[in-house]
Every structure is written in structure tokens, then in C-alpha cells.
Amino acid sequence: MNEMTAPAQKLxxxxxxxxxxxxxxxxxxxxxxxxxxxxxxxxxxxTRENTxxxxxxxxxxxxxxxxxxxxxxxxxxxxxxxxxxxKLANPELDVWMITGDGDGLSIGGNHMMHVLRRDVDIxxxxxxxxxxxxxxxxxxxxxxxxxxAPSTPQGSIDSPMNPISFALGSGARFAARTVDTAQKHxxxxxxxxxxxxxxxxxxxxxxxxxxxxxxxxxxxxxxxxKDKQLLLEDGEKMIFGAEDNKGxxxxxxxxxLEVVTIGESGITDGDILTHDESNLQLxxxxxxxxxxPGEPMAMGVLYADPAETTYADAVHAQVDxxxxxxxxxxxxxxxxxxxxx
Amino acid sequence: MTSEIQVLESAVVRxxxxxxxxxxxxxxxxxxxxxLEGSDLATFPDFPAEIRAPVGTTFGVSAxxxxxxARSIKTVGDQPDVLIAMNPxxxxxNLGNLRSGGLxxxxxxxxxxxxxxxxxxxxxxxxxxxxxxxxVIDLDVSRLTLEAVKEYGLGNKEALRCKNMWTLGLTLWMxxxxxxxxxxxxxxxxxKKPEIAASNVAALNAGHAxxxxxxxxxxxKRYQIGANKTEPGLYRTVTGSQxxxxxxxxxxxxxxxxxxxxxxxxxxxxxxxxxxxxxxxMGIVTFQAEDEIxxxxxxxxxxxxxxxxxxxxxxxxxxxxxxAMGLAISTELPLVVINSQRGGPSTGLPTKxxxxxxxxxxxxxxxxxxxxxxxxxxPGDCFEVAIEAxxxxxxxxxxxxxxxDGFIANAAEPWMLPDLDALxxxxxxxxxxxxxxxxxNPFKRDETTLxxxxxxxxxxxxxxxxxGIEKSFDTGHISYDADNHQKMTDTRFAKIDGIANDIPLQNxxxxxxxxxxxxxxxxxxxxxxxxxxxxARADGLSVSHIHIKYxxxxxxxxxxxxxxxxxxxxxxMNAGQLKTVLRDKFLIDxxxxxQVSGLPFKIIDILSAIRAEVGAPDTGVPNxxxxxx
Lengths: 341, 629
What we know:
heterodimer, A: alpha/beta, Rossmann fold, eight-stranded mixed sheet, three-stranded antiparallel sheet, 12 strands, B: alpha/beta, seven-stranded mixed sheet, 22 strands
């Protein structure tokens, strides 16, 4: 994000809502994310003219049409590259990138890796519904093994990837996770992503009501939320559970995080890990949490460690160092020349 | 011995050696020296794709050819008059082309048993009847070089690396060229290694002195090739890649836009990325992307945000960029796409030249996706063509394909420095904040050009959403309406076709309207066609030369012009692509003359085809100033 002049008068949700009819399926998780964004931007002091939404292809990538800001619905998988170009042209712009698990991790996986590695100052929202929606239900790179889909009638075979692990492995300096229905949690994550100088990667667990309904239910359904979600806060103990008595402990023998119950087997508060957003190793372990039965998924900001500068700023710093020192004429007319009379 | 100096009108010299022998440097330094004497010239660096192919092999041979003269030079010359062969492999691969009676200089020190074997010679060809057709000077250049640099205490390997400078010294002597520019260059290049600089200079001087004093089995003639009487002005040599990069920078300045180049390394386009990366003084931003697709997408993103997006590549990379080009066509954003064509298909011949991407340029992409295509004909021409590509891109809000090729990219020629202040600006005006009660419509078009108005992020009131989905002609919003798609498709074509009204009429390079035969070309075949037509006309044949720069749309008089000739011959370094497009557009009987060898045409091949077309006897090599042909 960039420090911008705040709008003269505070904008509202209406100012960020375009006149286009929203065309997602009724009940799609995308609606909640859109509303949350339209509601949060005024709170962030964002202006319509400096805000750009760039997307690829897929259900989630229709998002820009519904925001009354600048928007570019590009081609499949390439949003990170287009967004990089936007920032190279004008580093002052506030760029959000909207993608999905197919767009961002399959066809666009390479670009995603590089936009994170370069630390281009954009906010990336990856809507993960573990399925291809717009092409009618094929399995995706985050689908659970055995997913039965039109292209995998006997069930999918390949192992899914973990978006946050991918992001951290690519060199992301900000990684967070939230849920489409978490209207209280999501604005905070958006705010943090927006405030981070550098590439901020946010995985949003999103429900596809048509092709993969309830795929996140074991994490997001009301009755299990407290036991299956670990809400991270920097500097706070990693405690969760319906009775607030479960915690995350580091097991130095297995080199793993494990779930323990405070008050059982002599476990006290002191055994529970305190979240440190700047700890990359911890973030890597938190990213994978939830893979085993009984473990919660980590929500909120898993990792935030800003660099000194961001990519586009550094590129322009190099240009500015030389700019104007020599004209095109100086360049062309230099070197060995001769005169014909 | 002292030789008398013979005055020549032009000469073709070819330096050939192992990839590690420094032949490209030798050639380019000879070029500098020659250019400074005011001779016209054309060069042809001809090197293998491998960086260091196994030493001594025929596929590791690297060559540099220069044609220079006291007259206008348009090609690199069909046949070398002088061949310098630094090892048996270089002799083997280049001898066949040496003019009969031509001068052959060989480093006999490199004709070892092992090197002969690697080149496929059973015995040394030196002193055998195989070379009877030529004047042979065999010198142990290796030994002479070692002696010349011995006082600098270099290791054997490093000392031998000065061989090319020894040879260059001899060649400069042979053609009465000055050593000073080379000495200056060596001292600059090796400023931090004075002993290397000094030994190279010593080798250069030794080679030069050798020509002056040596007793040779063949008397080396000394030649003088004077200055070409050409348009007065300040000149320098320029390669296509340089001129193209400078043209892009000039185009950006004339448009009042920052240039953002997205590129990915590929032969032979990389020099453009390198050159523009060294031009930060002009505010140019370069982005070496993770792949070809990212490179063009970043350029498109930059254009969306108000810069001039440019991407450069070669055929295989251009293939990868096609979907994104469609996006730029659909969203009507300016973009310059540079294709330095090389031999294809697939990886093909990366370091060899071809012009086989014309179909790709005109017909590539899914859907009906027209864009302007323009081509450059020579290294110096790249400057102007690059500016024109920028002009069309911003004026018509469209990607423009600029076709150049590997030959033009690497070749050098004298170039009269342009008066930059005299270039006509084409300053872009972005959409402004709409007034009270007005709304911004990104697809509101200029009535003449049909270009949409360009609103950019950061400007209040012109917020809009665009994308690759079809847009309503009236509002720019998404539209799946059948009639609208027809209308938008028609509009996209009308916009590009309308460019024909904004470009010069097709001229005739040589000849006149309605002669018996028109030889029609495009791109880097300009030189050989030009010389062949000149020779044919000197023989009294009714032949004209037409060279097309604007390949889509064509100049609006082209059809009428071509229909005035009895016959049309289209020489191309492809299997007949322009021929097909001409037939398609104008229903004319364009006849192909194709060469897909990775090498430029020889004048004589085009001349023979011209004679066959007009029924003239093939009398062989013309005795005009098309020397070497």
C-alpha cells in the first residue's frame, strides 16, 4: 500500500460499488468477500481513483467489475504480471489482485511465485474453493485427493498444495488466511494486507456452492469454528477451542507443532507458543497446521516481515539515479562518429 | 617488401575462426576503422548458437563478413574477396564461398593434426591443389603472435588469445586502414588490465608491421577503398538492435510517455533488452520477466497505467505472447511488440536469420484479432520504424507488431545521425476528469481514428473496468450481445484498416510504374533485391523494385500499383508468406522466390530469377558495381 492523500470526504460502501449486476451464483462465497471489500476500503481511507483491481480468469476474477475503482480483468493466470506492470508504471497506485486456486496456483503458478519473490507491493487475495468453478467443476491444485469431478470420475489422484506454504516458499513476506463468511475477521486481514509494504498474500477459504459445496465445512461450520480455527494475534498465546483451553506447543523432539490441552498432563499457559509474525520458521509450521486430525487451521496473519524497500520503488530508485544525466541525443551522438562533407 | 596500393571500389572480407578466436570482435573493430574512413559498409556476424562449441569443430566456427566500398553498399556481398581462416574448420566451412582467385589468409600454426582431424581433413589442404584457385598466404599466426607479445609475460593460452589482433593488424594494413581507433578501444576495454591491453596492441602492431616488411610467398597486395560519396552529415555505425532501442526511446519521448519494456532473454532479441536497460537516463524502465508471457503482460499493465508498454522477443517467444496480444487488442491498449525473427519452426535456428513470422504477425492470435504490422529493412532503418510503431500504437490504441530479424539485429551499417529536434511529436492526451453530469466512457471513440479514449488510474472520475470479455460498443461494459459482437469486430478491423489513410503511399524504390516485372520484398531482403534490380536494369531489363514497410494494413495504392506490372516476383526468406498475403488481398499472380536456409539472399540468386521471369539469358555475374556477385 502507499500513503495517499485521504479523500476529502469519507467515502462509503456505495462509492465503491459499481453499477454492474453481480453475476455469481446465488449463495456463492464471493458475495461476502466483495461486500467486505466494499465496506473496508472506505475505512482504509482508500480513494477510488488510486485503487486498481487486477484479476485473471475464473469466478473470483470477475471481482473488478463490481468495484467502482479502476479494474483490469486480464487473462488466465497472468494477473501477477499485469499487476507488476501497473506498479512499474505508477508505484503510487494501490493495487489489489484477485485470483483463485486454479488461476493463481495452476496456470498462473509461475507468475505467482515471481510476484511474491520480487515483493511487488500489491495485495493478493486468493479465493480458495478447491475446485474450478467457471469451467464447471474440474478438480484444482488444492482439491482434496479423491475429488470426484468431470475430469476425475474415479477421483483425483494428485496431492494438493498448500497456498500459504507455496507463498512462503516463494519468498512472500506477508501471508495471511481468512474465511469468506468471517465478516468480522476478514476486514482486519484486509487492513493488514493493505498496510503492508510489499507483496501481501491472503488465502481466503471460499465456498463454491455449486461444484464443491461445504468443502471447508470441517473448518468453517459454526459448531466447529472454535475448535478448528486458531485465530492468530501477534504477541498473543496460541490458544483456541470452544472452552478456550487448547493451545499449540512446539514439540522439540518431533520438530512439530502439536495441540495440547491446558490443565491436562501438567500443561500450563507457559507451555503454549506465543505468536511471532516475524518468525519465518514458525509461519511455515503454522501454514501446515490443520493437515492432521484434531489440529486447527491458522487464521489471521501468519507472517509479516517487511523489507526495506519494495520492488517497484527499487526499480524507480535505480532509474531516478540516472534519469536526466544524459539525453538520447547525447547517447546517439557519442562514440565514434565521422563527418561527410 | 613494399607493395603498391591498388584502388578498389569495394571489397568483401570474411573473418572466420573458432568461437573462442574473437572473430566477432575482430570484425567489429575492422568495421569501426572502415567506417571512420567514410566507406559505406554492411556487416554480417554469422555465429553458432553454442556459446563455446567444442574447440576446432566445424559447428563451432564463428564468422564475420563485411562488404565495404567507395560506393553505396546494400548487401554483405555474395562472395568474399578475402577470407581469413584461423583454423582448418574455418577453412572447411568457408572456402566454398571464396571468390575464385580471391585471397586466402590462414593461420598455419592452427593446422595441427588434431585440428585437421576435427575439421574432417585427412591431410592438410595447405600446399595442395585444393587451394590452387586462390592466392594463399599461410602464416604461422600463432607463433608470430607469441613472439610479438612475449615481453608481457602472459601464459601461452592468454598470449594466443591475441591472435585475432595480429590478424586484424595485417588486415588493416592490407586495406590501408588506421590502427588508432582499435588501439583506443583496446586501451579502454582493458583499462584495468594494462598488460592485456599492451599485448593486444603489440599483436596488432606486429601484424601491421608484418604486412609492411615480410617476404611472402605471395605478394600481398595493398588496397585502398575510399570514402563513399553520400549525403553530407554526421555518421556513425549502428546495429539494428541499437537503432531499434534508440527509436523506442525516441518514440516514448515524442509520445510524452515513459517507456516500460517487459522482456525475456531470447536470441537474437536480447540486445534490445540489454540496450534499453542501459538507458535509465531517459527514464526507461526495463523488466526482465519470468517468462515471455509475463513480459508482455507487464508491458500491457504498464500501458493500462499510462506508460508506453513495449515487449521484445523472437518467434518462439512471440508465439507465447499471442494470447496477451489478443487482450491488448480487445482492451485497445497501446503496445509495441518487437519480433527479431530467426529460423523456425520451434527452436529452429536461433542465430540464423529468416522472415518466416509474417503469417504469425498478421494472422496469429485466436479470434479475429487485427493489428498493424510494420517491418524494418536495414539496421539504420530500425530507428524510424520503431518511432512509427510507437506513433501508431498510441494514436490508434493498439498493439503494433514490429518485424525485424536476426540479420538486421546484429548487422551494422553507417547511419546518418538524425536531427532529433526535427522529429514530429505525437503527444498523448489522457482522458480528463469528466465535468458535472458527465460520465467517462472508456470506449468512446475518436471519429477519425476510431481509437478509444485512454483513461488511466490516478485520475479521479475516469474509473473504469476493462478486460478481455467483449464490450458494449456504446458503454464499454461487458456484453454478450450478438449484434454488438459483430459491430465490435467490424470496428476493430475498421480501426486497423483505417491506418492506411495515415501512412505514406507505396513508393517504387527503383524503376517505374507498369514495367514488365515488379520485384516485391519486405524486411532485410532490401539489400540483395535492390542490388539485383540495379544490375538487371543496368542490363536494360524492364524491372522495378517495390519494398513494403507497412504489411498490415498495406498502403492504399499498393493493389493498383502492383496490378500495373505484367509479372510480380516476391523473394522471401520463408516459404512464401508475403506472396500469399498479396494474392489474398489483391488477387494477383504473385510468384514466390523462396530461400529458407537461415542465410540472407545472394544478389545473383535474385538476379537469375529476374532474368528467368523476363526471358533474359542468364549471363552469370554482372559486371556492374555489384562486385562479388
